[in-house]
Amino acid sequence: MWRPGEGEPTALEAEGLRQLAEYFAGKRQAFDLPLDWGAGLHERVRRAMAAIPFGETRTYGALSRQVEAPAQAVGQACGANPLPILIPCHRVLGANTLGGFSAPGGVESKVWLLRHEGAAGLLI
């Protein structure tokens, strides 16, 4: 994976960076990149998260019913998501809490992303 200061990114990395820049500039709501979805439950959960529209949220319980797995297992699969933002685990909430966020910045980053997407009404 490319990091600043480590030469030039590959074409795929450059495209991912371009799409992320568009997302943060408010010009993109979905990503169009070839992703490794994983396998089994992780794949089902990641695809379900990716299907949550920009600015909307789902609960771990709703995802658990959708993928037919216990909510705790869904939470663990969300926490194992290697591509936060691209696979929007920030859009998954607890029934009465924000839930966690394993990306850098933790829950504060999750709140920022939800506000960025206009889903902050639920935070009031």
Automatic annotation (TrEMBL):
Residues 42-119 form the Methylated-DNA-[protein]-cysteine S-methyltransferase DNA binding domain. GO terms for biological process: DNA repair; methylation. It comes from the Bacteria. Pfam families: DNA_binding_1 (PF01035). Gene3D superfamilies: Methylated DNA-protein cysteine methyltransferase domain, Winged helix-like DNA-binding domain superfamily/Winged helix DNA-binding domain. Transmembrane segments: none annotated. Keywords: DNA damage, DNA repair, Methyltransferase, Transferase. InterPro entries: MethylDNA_cys_MeTrfase_AS, MethylDNA_cys_MeTrfase_DNA-bd, MethylDNA_cys_MeTrfase_DNAb, MGMT_N_sf, WH-like_DNA-bd_sf. It catalyses: a 4-O-methyl-thymidine in DNA + L-cysteinyl-[protein] = a thymidine in DNA + S-methyl-L-cysteinyl-[protein]; a 6-O-methyl-2'-deoxyguanosine in DNA + L-cysteinyl-[protein] = S-methyl-L-cysteinyl-[protein] + a 2'-deoxyguanosine in DNA. GO terms for molecular function: methylated-DNA-[protein]-cysteine S-methyltransferase activity. This is Cysteine methyltransferase. It comes from Fuscovulum blasticum DSM 2131. The lineage of its organism: Bacteria, Pseudomonadati, Pseudomonadota, Alphaproteobacteria, Rhodobacterales.
